[in-house]
Amino acid sequence: MSSDNDVIHALSSGPGAGLVMDFDGVLSPITDDPAKSELMPGTEKILESLAEKLSAVALLSGRPVSFLAERASIPGVHLYGSYGLEHLTADGIDVLREAREWAAAVDAATRDLHRELDDVDGVHVEDKSLAVAVHWRRAPDREAAETSIAPLVERVRYTYGLRREPGKLVEELRMPLDEDKGTALHRIIRTHGLRTVAYAGDDRGDLPAFEAALATGGYALVVEASDVAPEVSRVPGTHFHGPEEFQTWLKELYDSLS
């Protein structure tokens, strides 16, 4: 297991160091309403300062890149949305060619889920541009909600040929591409010529990125909540108890770089 000081030392020891982070659960506390997720106070300034010191600072989220642009347009910070299928550039949003071919299927699945679930108490269908997610964190009976939602999600997945990915009180349907946060992190490393990278995440969708970071000799920064998935809690790396503790570590990293 790496200590937080080990990671700080590695990122501050020379050029070619990068820090890549998820948004929800890492820089923003998980909220009952996904639309209300936002950076914790003070985080924007910290990230802007880190971007001036490191070779790359990036956000890599399952959210659409447009969502990140609304909440985290920070000078020097690169934004990658939809698990890396989208990248915000100076010319607009760049989408991987393979993803464009599945856009119609995702749109149809999204319409089906809205039609079936929009009137269900405590259930929220989230449009994610290149994916769609069903949340039941606000359901009066979460276990019953999950039991009733699962067959519908599976039927829609099968109908449109999508891939099903579970998360914290959420089911997500994604394009059936050999793309995830791991392949996206590898692209970020190549694009920015990184020699050392640390990736911060909190959920199952971050597992490929943790694996990619460790495989390249980098570091996994695991931000845990009370409902952390067992496989996430077992990731070898530095573990933090919530976004607040991770923000404190970001300040320590900046102090070291300064």
The name of the CATH topology of the largest domain is Rossmann fold
Shape: globular
CA radius of gyration: 18 Å
Largest sheet, order of strands side by side? 5-4-3-2-1-10-11-12
Mean pLDDT: 93
Task: Give a quick rundown of the structure.
With 258 residues, the protein is of the alpha/beta class.
Describe this structure in words.
- With 258 residues, this protein is an alpha/beta fold.
- The protein folds into 2 domains: 4-96 and 179-257, HAD superfamily/HAD-like (Rossmann fold, 3-Layer(aba) Sandwich), CATH 3.40.50.1000; 99-174, 2-Layer Sandwich (Alpha-Beta Plaits).
- It is 41% helix and 22% strand.
- It has helices at residues 4-11, 43-53, 65-72, 97-100, 103-117, 142-160, 181-192, 207-215, 230-233, 242-257; strands spanning 17-21, 56-60, 77-81, 86-89, 92-95, 124-127, 131-135, 163-167, 170-174, 196-201, 219-224, 238-241.
- It has an 8-stranded mixed sheet, sandwiched between helices.
- β2 (56-60), α3 and β3 (77-81) form a beta-alpha-beta unit.
- α2 packs parallel to α10.
- The longest helix is centred in the middle third of the chain and has 19 residues, at 142-160.
- The chain starts with a helix and ends with a helix.
Topology:
Elements: H1 4-11, E1 17-21, H2 43-53, E2 56-60, H3 65-72, E3 77-81, E4 86-89, E5 92-95, H4 97-100, H5 103-117, E6 124-127, E7 131-135, H6 142-160, E8 163-167, E9 170-174, H7 181-192, E10 196-201, H8 207-215, E11 219-224, H9 230-233, E12 238-241, H10 242-257
Parallel strand pairs: 1-2, 1-10, 2-3, 10-11, 11-12
Antiparallel strand pairs: 3-4, 4-5, 6-7, 7-9, 8-9
Helix pairs in contact: 1-10, 2-10, 5-6, 7-8
